Amino acid sequence: MGKLFGTDGVRGVAGDFLTADLALALGRAAAAISPADAPQVLIVRDTRESGEMLEAALAAGVSAAGGQALLGGVLPTPGAALLLRRYGFDLAAVVSASHNPYRDNGIKFFGPDGTKLSDDHEAEIERLLDDEHAGSADHPGHVKELHGAEADYLRELESRFADLDLSGTRVLLDCANGATYRVAPEIFRRLKADVDAFATEPDGRNINEGVGSTHVGALAKRVAGGPKLTRPGS
């Protein structure tokens, strides 16, 4: 098998290059390289329609290696790094292809310090993929939902930015129909900003479609030429 990991994890067309079988193998190998006997692995994803399939496959791989897969649901990538440290988990996996079209997806891993795995660790994962028996445990682990992950992420953000008062500030957010579609407007509201947000209705296929970091014109148009935004009571 050739080199899989690029600069931002393993990426490709979901179901074609990035299959459920590959996701399962990656989950098993990632859990196997952890020094923990039963590593706790947080898994979060964005809103792509392939996310649930890859999330389930990753979790199955982690469990096959004797690990504990904890499903955090839809959260942005920084949420995985933050919650990894907050809970003291051993690993985190993010199922996302960031600004790519919805057909693509990706998997990237974070170590217990909240940073992406080193090149050496990624190489070790790739080496284990070539051994179909590597990482198999005598007793499988478990797959569980991590209830309250989104709420905990928001509380952490609110605590870290407690001194930032955005009262009287108007904020327009382009959420790209992606992983921030709930948490981004909410954290700005908690910081007392007046928030207007768009691209907050993901359907699995509209992520980054004419919006997001590669289509900043959608945001600029609303700021410069869109309807005037007024504060309640003004």
Structure description:
The chain is built from 7 helices and 8 strands, in the order βαβαβαββαβαβαβα. It has 234 residues and is α/β, with parallel strands linked by helices. It folds into 2 domains: 10-151, 3-Layer(aba) Sandwich (Alpha-D-Glucose-1,6-Bisphosphate, Chain A, domain 3); 162-224, Alpha-D-Glucose-1,6-Bisphosphate, Chain A, domain 3 (3-Layer(aba) Sandwich). β7, α6 (183-190) and β8 (194-198) form a beta-alpha-beta unit. It is globular. The N and C termini lie far apart (63 Å). Mean pLDDT is 92; it is low at 228-234.
Layout of strands and helices, then pairs:
Elements: E1 10-13, H1 20-33, E2 40-45, H2 51-64, E3 68-74, H3 77-87, E4 91-95, E5 104-110, H4 119-129, E6 142-145, H5 149-160, E7 170-174, H6 183-190, E8 194-198, H7 217-224
Parallel strand pairs: 2-3, 2-4, 3-6, 7-8
Antiparallel strand pairs: 1-5, 4-5
Helix pairs in contact: 1-2, 1-4, 5-6
The order of strands across the largest sheet is 1-5-4-2-3-6
Radius of gyration: 19 Å
Count of all domains: 2
Task: Report low-confidence residues grouped into runs of 5 or more.
Answer: 228-234
CATH second-level architecture of the largest domain: 3-Layer(aba) Sandwich
Task: Return the structural class.
Answer: alpha/beta
**Number of separate helices:** 7
Strand proportion: 15-25%
Instruction: Name the CATH class of the largest domain.
Output: Alpha Beta
Helical amount: 25-40%
Highlighted features:
234 residues, alpha/beta, Alpha-D-Glucose-1,6-Bisphosphate, Chain A, domain 3, 2 domains, six-stranded mixed beta sheet, two-stranded parallel sheet, 7 helices, 33% helix, disordered C terminus
